[in-house]
Design goal:
The structure holds two protein chains of two kinds. In chain A, about 75% of the residues lie in helices and about 0% in strands. Chain A has nine helices and no strands. Chain B is mostly helical. Chain B has two domains: about 5-120 and about 225-290, no CATH class; about 125-205, no CATH class. Chain B contains ten helices and two strands. The longest helix of chain B is centred in the middle third of the chain and has 32 residues, at about 170-205. The chains are: A mainly alpha, B mainly alpha. At the A-B interface, helix 2, helix 3, helix 5, helix 8 and helix 9 of A face helix 1, helix 4, helix 6, helix 7 and helix 8 of B.
């Protein structure tokens, strides 16, 4: 506990220093750069948390396998924009194994699938968006409506939009100098159909696969007593 | 053993890419960006004779043309007005911003093309295993599982085909159903196997002490030398940028594009920094051709 506290203190100091540095150095217009610094800082505590947590071998391998399934399932769908079962797998992990596992699987799946589909400036944003998807699924898993099938579908559908909106913010933040409300509206209008496709495919996968996947994952969790104590 | 630019220590390579990425977003003088762009095209063509670059060229040209053409019409900030289009002003500033933004993005993408060729797989993870050991280890496992899952999926596919369930034919309902069955088989099978992998790791002593990685990279003299040089050049560039060299003011009114003495110094520093791979490869070529 003491160790984790000192780690978090260090992390928060780093964030503060980096933000001050970014204000001092990049006063002209390096918004893209600042946006990277900030997104990196936002994710740092989550990874720090994963680093300091005591985690069994079985759990780490299980998480790796789930992230691999999430990453692989994105590749055959690469031709269809926004339609992929990755989001579904990440939501499932969050629901069964909790918020932290959801975040790690989402973030790692983004990095690994981009090794095959191409890394780019968008990688950290995807990591964060998918990580948050898993995390929120984990945090909300004990609410009464998440237990219902319509609740999960609503959650998946909303995340289709949230994910798209978050990726839009990347485009906007990266050239804030150029910002106008026209541009803002234009980007969000252009993404409506892509986000709809993402949301609907989430709903489709949740309806068709949801129940059986939860059953399979829960059986594993119980059988081997994995990731039980994690929030 | 890899030679040339690839043979350098991953830290040096990673630092080089960080420098290039930061400077591409830091400077916004069009001439700086143009020079950087040309240097990086050169760098890319030394890696694999420009094979990877060729695949990206249509996209790079298309993207930058769209940004340059569309930006002045979407954005009406700025004071120097060219003409009015549907009641909105088309300005010099927005055009210039479009050019700067397009060049900057092209440089970053060029950097990533090179990055994907040079710092792939193990080296990338080696860099991160210093900062985030557990996450890097997890990522390493995931990367190993990807081809495994693909092979397993093919195997399941073969078996299911013989049983008469296939994703290649039938009504959409049937196809979806067999795809679902196959995915579930893959899931359960892989999870069981994952437990076995974990147990075998434990049996071999994983988690007993500190994990000792096999490090095939050694920081030697030339790595340190280059790292120092890169750091020095990078700090000169950043310091110069703070005083406004290498940068132009775009909004609200386009500032001067004129070059002062220090702008030239900055430009030389940046070019030297970015052509690190070119210098290394060039030196090897010279040695290969002219030494006895």
């Amino acid at each position: 506990m003491a160790r984790s506290r000192s780690y978090l203190t260090v992390v928060s100091i780093i964030i503060l220093v980096l933000l001050v540095v970014s204000i001092a150095f990049f006063k002209y217009n390096a918004y893209l750069l600042v946006s990277f610094v900030i997104i990196g800082c936002i994710m740092l505590p989550f990874f720090a948390r994963f680093e300091i947590r005591e985690i069994a071998v079985r759990e780490i391998v299980l998480l790796a396998m789930l992230a691999a399934i999430a990453a692989v399932s994105r590749v055959p769908f690469a031709g269809l924009p926004s339609v992929q079962p990755t989001s579904f797998v990440i939501i499932m992990v969050g629901l069964v194994f909790g918020a932290e596992s959801g975040f790690i699987v989402g973030a790692v799946a983004a990095v690994v699938s981009n090794i095959f589909l191409g890394q780019g400036p968008w990688t950290p944003w995807q990591m964060y968006a998918w990580g948050m998807m898993g995390m929120s699924a984990g945090l909300l898993r004990n609410t009464w409506w998440m237990g219902k099938i319509w609740g999960k579908c609503l959650f998946g559908f909303l995340w289709g939009y949230l994910f798209g909106w978050f990726m839009n913010i990347w485009m906007i933040v990266s050239n804030l100098e150029n910002f106008t409300w026209d541009l803002f509206v234009g980007i969000y209008v252009a993404s409506i159909y892509f986000d709809l496709a993402h949301g609907l495919s989430n709903v489709f996968f949740l309806v068709v696969f949801g129940a059986s996947w939860i059953k399979i994952l829960q059986r594993f969790k119980k059988k081997y007593g994995l990731l039980d104590a994690v929030i | 053993m890899e030679n040339g630019f690839r043979g350098y220590h991953p830290f040096v390579l990673f630092f080089y890419y960080v420098c290039v990425g930061v400077l591409a977003m830091y400077f916004n003088h069009p001439l700086f960006l143009l020079v950087a762009c040309l240097v990086l095209i050169g760098v890319n063509s030394t890696h694999d004779k420009g094979k990877a670059l060729k695949k990206w060229i249509p996209m790079l040209i298309g993207m930058s043309t769209i940004i340059i053409l569309v930006n002045p019409f979407l954005n009406s900030r700025g004071t120097t007005i060219f003409f009015y289009f549907r009641g909105k002003q088309v300005t010099l500033e927005a055009t210039m911003y479009g050019i700067v933004m397009a060049l900057s993005l092209v440089i970053i993408l060029l950097m990533f093309i090179s990055f994907n060729l040079i710092l792939n797989g193990n080296k990338f993870l080696f860099v991160f295993s210093k900062f985030l050991p557990k996450t890097a280890f997890l990522t390493m496992l995931v990367i190993r599982f990807v081809p495994l899952l693909k092979r397993r999926f093919d195997e399941i596919n073969d078996v299911q085909r013989i049983r008469g369930m296939t994703i290649a034919s039938g009504t959409i309902r049937e196809r979806a159903k067999s795809a679902m069955v196959m995915l579930q088989i893959l899931l359960t099978w892989s999870l069981e196997e994952a437990i076995e992998t974990a147990d075998s790791m434990k049996a071999r002593g994983y988690g007993i002490g500190k994990r000792s990685p096999y490090v095939p990279y050694k920081m030697d003299k030339r790595d340190k030398g280059w790292l120092l040089t890169l750091m020095l050049l990078f700090s000169v560039c950043i310091a110069g940028g703070i005083f406004g060299y290498g940068k132009i003011i775009i909004y609200p009114e386009l500032g001067t594009l004129q070059f002062y003495l220090f702008d030239w110094v900055m430009l030389v520093c940046m070019t030297l920094l970015m052509s690190f791979p070119l210098l290394v490869e060039g030196r090897e070529q010279v040695k290969w051709k002219f030494s006895m």
